[in-house]
Design brief:
By secondary structure, this protein is of the alpha+beta class. Helices cover 45% and strands 18% of the residues.
Length: 157
């Protein structure tokens, strides 16, 4: 796995987020839309992808998924899918994913994790070191180690 320094990808991801935010807001004016993931956190190295958090009330969940698919996105395979979480991935060749989340669900942790790292240069450094140590691993091994780190951060609230 190749990780990019922040200056190599964060500006592009911010511009891409702003563009998608406009499209999402048009389709789902009632949704909360947030830039999440490594590209949202200053000084974090990343594979260079963009994650967008889209929060809706339970009664809008399935409708929101249908609307977002019109932006040329499909459900991401081999990821957790519940009645409160759905991940969509872009077919636009831009390495963008949507996390559609139900309001007040456990999946609000995406925001909590982002905020904890934004508030802690120490955690950012730990996260970067973890990523560098995983650069020789496959995606599944990396996801497991990254998940353990996320859980550790979230459990020290």
């Amino acid at each position: 796995m190749v990780f990019l320094e922040p200056e190599k990808y964060q500006q592009r991801c911010a511009q891409l987020f702003n563009s998608y935010q406009k499209d999402i807001s048009t389709l789902l004016p009632f949704a909360k839309i947030e830039h999440i993931g490594s590209s949202a956190i200053p000084n974090v190295i990343s594979k260079g992808d963009l994650d967008i958090y889209i929060e809706v009330k339970p009664e809008h969940f399935e409708f929101a998924i249908g609307q977002l698919k019109t932006l040329n996105f499909i459900e991401k395979q081999n990821t957790l899918r519940t009645h409160e979480l759905c991940m969509l991935e872009s077919l636009n060749n831009d390495d963008v994913a949507f996390q559609i989340v139900v309001t007040d669900s456990v999946f609000a942790f995406f925001l909590t994790f982002r905020n904890k790292l934004m508030d802690s240069p120490t955690l950012v450094n730990e996260y970067n070191q973890l990523k560098l140590q995983c650069s020789h691993l496959d995606h599944d091994q990396y996801r497991k180690i990254k998940s353990d780190f996320i859980n550790r951060v979230l459990n020290h609230l």
